[in-house]
Amino acid sequence: MAGPWLLGRIVDEVRDGGGVAVVDRLAPVIVACAVAQLLLSRWARYVGHRFGERTLARVRERFVDRALGLPSSVVERAGTGDLTARGTADVTAVGTTLRDAGPSLLVNGVQSLFVMAAVVVVDPLLGALGLLCLTPIGLAVRWYLRRARDAYLAEGAANSDVAEIVAATAAGARTVEAFRLEERRVRACRDALETSRRARFHTLFLRTVFFPVVEVSYAVPVAGVLLIGGVLHERGAVSLGAVVSASLYLLQLSGPLDEVLMRVEQLQSSGASFARVEGLARAPRAARRGDGPDPADDRIDVTGVRYAYDGGVEVLRGVGLTVTPGERLAVVGPSGAGKTTLSRLLAGVDAPTAGSVTVGGVPVAGLDPERLRRQGGLVTQEHHVF
Prior knowledge:
The chain is an alpha+beta fold.
């Protein structure tokens, strides 16, 4: 902040006949201000990184707690790649913002405000002219913000689809080969990648419009102040030092302002990621039934079970079986016979529409999530990562 003002004073002093002594007196002050700025910037970056890492740790812990608290049925319907993408790419994007973008945006935003205030203090007319020339940047930011959030949300959803298809195909590679589903899986991967490519190209288009307009707009205030300031100086309205100081301030403004706008672009991406991470809070949580009875043993009884998905056609009708502790049961049947559905009922993922499924005399679907996880689990043909 002090550098351009001191340089303007040097210009005015030399123009008025001041000697080398003026430069010798003010130059060390400029160097001291630069060193102080360096130390303060380093301290601010250190504090920002520490804040970001601590906050990110809480975000990760809360995400894991919420994911483990989801009902099994919600996890099953979410898709194999959704939680994976939210817990990896989205959490990483949020962490980068908390560690780098947030503190940098605050520091550079405050610096930009001080620089603009300094231009007005040097000369109100030149300051008003410089701020008026920043209008194209404001219009570009408004255009970008109206479109960026939806675009980045679509990109995140497309990435989840890609992760889901790739994970399921890799985990079930032997099944895919056994049933000769290679072409179908390759086609599904290509479709998901094409959707992801279009989503990425859309966000790329927004950036290729936004940043060139902003970069060109940085030169407008400096050029305007030099041209109008030169005319005013010829008429004696402003001093040469004021024109130099105002021009240098506006030139210096491009640095922090560019950083702010870059972080704004990053905030749109990380904001969409943060919405996906925190979106687990809106999902229904598994009910806590800590006061319920504990299963007496591992005996499984299925009595008169009937089940239909979402009120549709029944896929299970009058199923009954008993599995005693230590016994192994293989369920064999054609595709669509209800093998996976029965397994979901046995694991407590879903509750039967009629009849009962009990373990140790206690309904499986009524068990507390912690007890249900200790009692048993469901390993499907798909790959789930929590």
